[in-house]
Specification:
297 residues; alpha+beta; Pseudouridine synthase; Structural Genomics Hypothetical 15.5 Kd Protein In mrcA-pckA Intergenic Region, Chain A; nine-stranded mixed sheet; four-stranded antiparallel sheet; 15 strands; 15% helix
């Protein structure tokens, strides 16, 4: 797996690197499911410019200019004071004639496609946050990172406390991956994973699980996604479960055993399991049941 988790807004590194919460940004496509802005107490009074900035309407400076030009209304009345206090869940705000809905927190499940970076902004590649076209907030970030060539489950939110719980190695949250591995795995590969792999740079990983993909209904790669050698002996599908996210960790673990990962997909993180009906690039809000499992409802 490769994950790196760092504050978002960084760029394409992804799945490798240590995992840390991230934090910020926005933009484009996907599919839907249930609710996204759930899980925390009602918002109190806040400044109009802060409200609009948090909802991704623009920077504070841009919002001040918009207010000065009469482009913002509160409860149907033009409001030119960006410092005006309002109650987000009671007052109606429109920006350029479009209502700006409020969400204190948003939670989306994304099936990350290859070629997209796990970041909030990037000058070269499209980001995972830009795939969330229905987002309301401007401060969403990916929980953890997947490499640019890695697919699968990624949680997109602005809930930093939840991100910390999921990413901290001390919390022992399982992250499960499907890997296609090229090369002959040693007979004791599973035992080596369970004991902790010593990487090339001397880093010792936490104990991990290595299992055959056949045991998992969702742990199969569609035919044609990768090339399998005639007898299947040199390229095989396996399930890897780890509880940390060091730089290019899954790939480096297999390299230590003399093998190479040719395909990697994250299947689950803790209680959250990738919705197999989501094609790469598609997303949906988390369901009430999924949020309850995270204890955020």
């Amino acid at each position: 797996m490769e994950k790196t988790e760092k504050p978002a807004g960084v760029e394409e590194k992804s799945e490798s690197m240590e995992e840390k919460p991230a934090g910020m940004e926005e933009k484009s496509d996907g599919r839907t499911g249930q609710s996204a802005g759930k899980g925390k107490p009602p918002a109190g009074a806040m400044r109009l410019d802060r409200f609009l900035a948090e909802m991704g309407a623009g920077t504070r400076g841009q919002i001040r200019d918009a207010a000065k030009n009469g482009r913002i209304q509160v409860n149907g009345v033009v409001e030119k004071r960006p410092e005006r206090k309002l109650f987000p869940e009671e007052d109606t705000v429109t920006f350029d004639g479009r209502r700006v809905a409020y969400a204190a927190f948003e939670y989306y499940m994304l099936n990350k496609p290859q070629g997209v970076v796990s970041a909030t902004e990037d000058n070269r590649y499209q980001t995972v946050v830009e795939l969330i076209g229905e987002r309301k907030r401007g401060d969403l970030f990916p929980v953890g990172r997947l490499d640019i060539d890695t697919e699968g489950l990624l949680l997109i939110t602005n809930d930093g406390a939840l991100a910390h719980r999921l990413l901290s190695p001390k919390k022992h949250v399982d992250k499960r991956y499907l890997a296609v591995v090229e090369g002959r795995l040693p007979d004791d590969a599973a035992e080596q994973f369970a004991a902790g792999i010593v990487l090339a740079d001397g880093t010792v990983t936490m104990p991990a699980r290595l299992e055959a993909a056949d045991a998992f209904p969702c742990g199969k790669v569609a035919s044609g996604t990768f090339s399998v050698l005639p007898d299947g002996g040199e390229s095989r599908q396996v399930i890897v479960t780890i509880r940390e996210g060091k730089f290019h960790q899954v790939k480096r673990m297999f390299e230590t055993l003399g093998c190479r990962v040719t395909y990697l997909k994250r299947l689950s993180m803790g209680s959250l399991v990738l919705d197999e009906s989501l094609r790469p690039g598609q997303y949906r809000p988390l369901t009430d049941e999924e949020l309850a499992a995270f204890e955020v409802v």
